[in-house]
Amino acid sequence: MTDLATTLSVTEEKNLNISEADQLAQRCARYMFENDAASQALGIELMQVKCGGAIAVMNVKDSMLNGHKTCHGGQIFSLADSAFAFACNSQNQAAVALSCTIDFIHPAFEDDTLTATAEELHQGGRSGVYHIKVTNQNQQLIAIFKGNSARIKRSVLPENK
């Protein structure tokens, strides 16, 4: 498994022809992830970021289990919320969660690898709607997350980035 920095380095080395919008999305994600202690503490890795979308991965550790020995719903929510954050901030317009819902479909267990795939359904001037699907290593659907974002009238990247 690789992280976003490695993915971006490989992309740059291969000089892949990615759009300017996706390049901006990757710069925004790199900047945000460097300052995201919560995602880092959970061991979340960004696998892909593009304009309006993101893929994040997290391995379920024993410290993430609840009393039923399944992954605590808050951990799954956090993974989905992180993918949502990177997707809705990908256009260099800072956005925060306005509301979020999650439906838990199947349990996740210790040593499962969870993947949250976020996609933009709508992005208006100030608000956006995003759909995040969380699956395990067997492509089994674990949860469905819907996030509504609100832009907060500033850029993600500092002026010189």
Radius of gyration: 15 Å
> What's the number of domains?
1
**Total helical segments:** 4
CATH topology: Thiol Ester Dehydrase, Chain A
Identify the strand order in the major beta sheet: 1-2-4-5-6-3
Molecular shape: globular
Largest sheet: 6 strands, antiparallel
Structural class: alpha+beta
What fraction strand? 25-35%
CATH architecture: Roll
- The percent range for helix content is 25-40%
CATH class, anyone?
A: Alpha Beta
The whole-number mean of residue pLDDT values reads 92
How is the quaternary structure best described? single chain
Q: Which stretches are poorly predicted, pLDDT < 50 over at least 5 residues?
A: 9-15
How far the N terminus sits from the C terminus, by CA atoms, comes to 27 Å
Strand elements, count: 6
Q: For this structure, what is the CATH homologous superfamily?
A: Hotdog Thioesterase
Order of helices and strands: HHHEEHEEEE
Q: Which features would summarize this protein structure in a list?
A:
161 residues; alpha+beta; Thiol Ester Dehydrase, Chain A; six-stranded antiparallel sheet; globular
How is this structure best described in words?
The chain is α+β, with helices and mostly antiparallel strands and 161 residues long. It has one domain (4-151): Roll (Thiol Ester Dehydrase, Chain A). 29% of the residues lie in helices and 34% in strands. It contains 4 helices and 6 strands. It has a 6-stranded antiparallel beta sheet. It is globular and about 45 Å long. The model is unreliable at 9-15 (pLDDT under 50).
Summarize, please.
The protein is of the alpha+beta class. The chain has helices spanning 4-14, 20-34, 37-41, 73-88, and strands at residues 45-50, 53-59, 95-104, 113-123, 127-135, 141-151.
